[in-house]
Amino acid sequence: YENPWTVPNLLCVCRILLAPYLGYLITQQHFDLSLALFALAGATDLLDGLIARTWPTQKSALGSALDPLADKILISVLYVSLTYAELIPAPLTALVIFRDIGLIAAVFWVRYKTVPPPVTLSKFFNPCYTTAQLKPTLFSKVNTAIQLFLVAASLAAPVFQFTDSVLLQCLW
Q1: DSSP character for 136?
Q2: Out of 38, 64, 122, 156, which residue is the most buried by the measure of CB atoms under 10 Å away?
C-alpha cells in the first residue's frame, strides 16, 4: 500500500491531460504553440523521472506504470493528430497505435495478476495498492525516443517550412 500522490505521478497526469489539447491545437494547425507545449510535455517527462530517481519517497509502483502510459497516450494522440494534419503517414500511425494498445493491454494484465486476491474492480483501480514495478527495456526507451523525435520533427516542419523535406520522409 503506497501513497499515489507524488510529484512525478502528478506530472504524468498533467501530461495525460495535455495530450487532447495538443491534439486539438495540431488539428487546428496551431503548430507554433503545439511545438512549444510538446517541448513542455517532454520537460515534464524528464523531470518526473529525475524526481523519482533522486528522492526515494517520490518513487512508486503506480508511477512505474503511469509514466509509460502517459507517454503512450501522448504519442498516440500526437500521431493521430499529425496524420489528420497530413504530416505523418496513416500506415505509420496505425503501426504505432496497435503496438501501444498491445503494451497497454500487457500493463493491465500485469496489474490484474499482481493485485492482492481477491481481485475486485475497486482494488484493481485503487492506485494505493502496490503491484509489480515495471521497468522499460533499453529497446523500448530507444523506440520511444525515435517516436518522439519524429513527432518533434513533424511538428517543427510547418513552423520552419520543411514539410516536403526528404529527411523528414526518411524518418517515416
Answers
A1: -
A2: 38
